[in-house]
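Attaching the record inline, Q. Sequence:
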Amino acid sequence: MDLSAVPLVALRVFQEVAERGSLSAAAAALGYTRSAVSRQIAALERVVRAPLFDRQLDGVRLTDTGHVLLRHAGLVLTQLDAASRELSGLPATAGTVRLGWFTSAGGTLVPSALAALRRSHPALTVTTRDGTTASLVRALRARTVDIAVLASEPPFPPLDDETPALRTKVLDERELLLAVPSTHPLAHKDFIDVADLRGWAWIAGPPGFGVWPGLDERAVVAHVARDWLAKLQLVATGAGITTLPEPLATLVPNGVQVIRVRSRERQRVVVAWLNLSEPASVVVDALVGGTLS
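Structure, as predicted:
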């Protein structure tokens, strides 16, 4: 087996498919046709003499061979990007850092850190993208983002079970609140118990964020929305109830009432990475500094 002749474009296509979990989604992201992406993957599979993905009805999943190739392809592409920065004569803390963040982190945490970085490190460029925690974990593994701000709810399981383990630093633990329509039977209460949450329709984002973590029944999810403001607008119309991280309580629209639940569940916010370049470590420090200020 000789990987030395594999074109870089094939590795980048492979990396994108691994992150997106779908040939069609990777093609759309790259601006290619699906057949072009499929040909690149087939060419790589001929070189390694093994399938890189298991084809499933809902997309593709990496095989063991695919996991090995992804780990090394990510390192190669990361090192080439670093070489490009160095050859451009940029200072060590200059360059571009790719930051992923789950949706509610865009309310205060990420904008505050970016504002601080513009003042302290003007030569540093940070590009950002939002996504679910699960999709951003895949992006970290595929090395299409350098660091990611992620959310975890009780009982705070590991982000994934792959090796090497993702490195993390806790940025914050926020109390979870409940958002209900102002006309809801629970709206007049200052505090409620988990038992009061039974039987109501929920507005949740994938993979279930929005449903109270301690709910002791199978939740009825009436609507799915990733964006927190969209969830709150649905609440305002009476479409259901949803959880709400405490920092977003000041952003609720008219028609929404915020209530505390006595179980006091919390949402943990972490920043995660596989390897930290010097520019990426500057961004991590800014995120940590923003939570401490």
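The first strand starts at residue 53 and ends at 56. The first helix runs from residue 8 to 20.

More tomorrow.
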